[in-house]
Structure formats: structure tokens, C-alpha cells
């Protein structure tokens, strides 16, 4: 009986971390969707009830045309859920470029990411 009470009490202290989750994020960017994005993000509820997830980002060139630069780039994705409608704010950082995206986490919704080097590209992000 004491063991059961100890386990239940210990579970009460662990409950906030149970709100942590992870997602596999996929997406495409470029005017011809010539880049695929993948990221495994994880995190938990922050103060104020917002959910913030982050993880390693991979940006891979999949277009048919040649391009300047590497075929695969790595960086960081930070994503924050704005509300329950899957609207997100995201920061994509790779190859010295920081880009922001405000839009929906949906395979059918296209938005734009705006980068610190004045580059603006179409972007679709979704959770798998």
C-alpha cells in the first residue's frame, strides 16, 4: 500500500512533463517547390499555455534544375502554436539565414517565409 501511495505521489510531480510532445514536420519551399524540409521537433507547454517545439531542420534540394549551393543544408526549426486552429509562428535557421513564417500547419495551405537576407519564398509546412 505504501508503494502504491509513493507511486501516485511521484506521478503528481511528473504530470507537467506529460504535456511534452514531439512532431515530425515536413514541408516544401521555393517557387517550384524545389526544396523539401523535414524536422523532428519536440517541446512542451511554456508559461502562459503556449506550446513551443524545436529541433534539427534538413533542407534538401529535390528540383530537376541545377542550382548553386549544397544539395542538403541543416539548421534549426523553432515552432510555436498560436491557437487551436493549427496556426503557427516558425523560425527556420539554416546556412546563416533566419526566416520567419506565420501561417497554418497544413499541407494544403501555402504561406511565405521571409528571410533576413530579404529573400521571400513560398512555404508549406505540415505535421506527419
What would you note in describing this structure?
The protein is mainly β and 128 residues long. It has a single domain (20-127), classed as Lipocalin (Beta Barrel). The chain has one helix and eight strands; from the N terminus they run H-E-E-E-E-E-E-E-E. Strands 1-2-3-4-5-6-7-8 form an eight-stranded antiparallel β-barrel. The longest helix has 13 residues, at 2-14. Mean pLDDT is 85; it is low at 1-18.
Task: Supply the key terms.
mainly beta, disordered N terminus, 128 residues, single chain, eight-stranded antiparallel beta barrel, Lipocalin
In short:
This protein has 128 residues and is mainly beta. The protein has 1 helix and 8 strands, in the order αββββββββ.
Number of strands: 8
Oligomer: single chain
* Adjacency order of strands in the biggest sheet: 1-2-3-4-5-6-7-8
For the record, the count of structural domains works out to 1
Largest β-sheet summary: 8 strands, antiparallel, barrel
CATH topology: Lipocalin
Please compute the radius of gyration using only Cα atoms: 18 Å
CATH architecture: Beta Barrel
Structural class: mainly beta
Tertiary shape: globular
Strand content: over 45%
Instruction: Provide the residue-averaged pLDDT.
Output: 85
Low-confidence stretches at least 5 residues in length (pLDDT < 50)? 1-18
Sequence-ordered SSE layout with sheet pairings:
Elements: H1 2-14, E1 21-29, E2 35-45, E3 51-61, E4 72-81, E5 87-94, E6 97-104, E7 111-115, E8 120-127
Antiparallel strand pairs: 1-2, 1-8, 2-3, 3-4, 4-5, 5-6, 6-7, 7-8
